[in-house]
């Protein structure tokens, strides 16, 4: 993705604490992770494995003795006089996933639904972000080089300007739990990072990000950088998958030029632009959209399959994409805007051609390209599932014309059919489409060509 996910917020009445990250485990509200099963596959077949999801700590109530540690966009200096003391004082509380955050699983525990706007007892929640776990204390670490990841998606209720995202980031398995300034850990969704080096992460490696905190933007001095592989960023109108390599392993607490902020975007340690494969942007405007006139009909569910081709010991060479809908395998669209025989997958060669064609700086190659992305996949990454709107640029980078100061006829500017303007602003979307939602189901990982559409509800048969 191209911009930070800072627009994901919980809007509560003034008498209740806004959501924030914290590092101590609370005791006022029990934390119960919604169960979510996944499939592990080989050439011999697929087997169900029990897992669960946990809400990101940034959404949770942060309190000390029942009083807010963070209110009206700012820290309470009485309990957060310095970053470490703040982390030791404040506790994250458990979440009511369905009633407050609009997060639910179906009765078979193989499908996750994220709702856009949820009216709770104390106010409205907008969007959410959850992580996949393999125990109540640890995130599941996926190692995907020379493997395949797939899932079913239903984006039929996602309008322009909203993003139902599935991606991997190189988070710590325990959320940087250390038993001292962070006793919440993965159990309460701590430790987030991504390639945008977000500054809205309120605790980084056991310390509050309260230094130079700006209550207007809800950001602190430090950012949280790590490699990111965007499997699926999409609504019903447009989609992209994008590798974002970083030159440092794991979570880096960045400051200054290391973060690559503002006019130093390309001087940081992460490739913030990435190499995106967006079918619309690459020339096929009839490939993805709602209705039978599109190759992939987003008015109906379908499977998304991503293959990370390479070898167990060698570099990542290619990231392939195909879909399965109506029992038919659908190859990815061709990158026709780059010329004949340019391919339909992410390779170092395609990325270089795309950057040249669109007049973009090739930071992907500078940051190590697929080899560096493959190294992160080899080390292991955490699965993230989220639903969000974009207060920064209204999701124009995904589904409309961006940048806005260039003609739409400029190659690479049109990324989707959405009109942009007021209709893509968070204010308009939240009032017009509060019932928007996305469903993710049948999460599968395995050897290349081992994951097929699998329906547990039909007795465990392949369909």
UniProtKB/TrEMBL annotation:
In the record, biological process GO terms are: cellulose catabolic process
Signal sequence, start to end: 1-22
User: InterPro entries, per this entry?
Assistant: ConA-like_dom_sf, Glyco_hydro_7, Glyco_hydro_7_sf
Which enzyme class, named as a word?
Answer: hydrolase
Give UniProt keywords alphabetically: Carbohydrate metabolism, Cellulose degradation, Glycoprotein, Glycosidase, Hydrolase, Polysaccharide degradation, Signal
- EC number(s) recorded for this UniProt protein: 3.2.1.4
Q: Which GO terms describe its molecular function?
A: cellulase activity
Q: What is this protein called?
A: cellulase
Which classification does the entry list for the species?
Eukaryota, Sar, Alveolata, Dinophyceae, Gonyaulacales
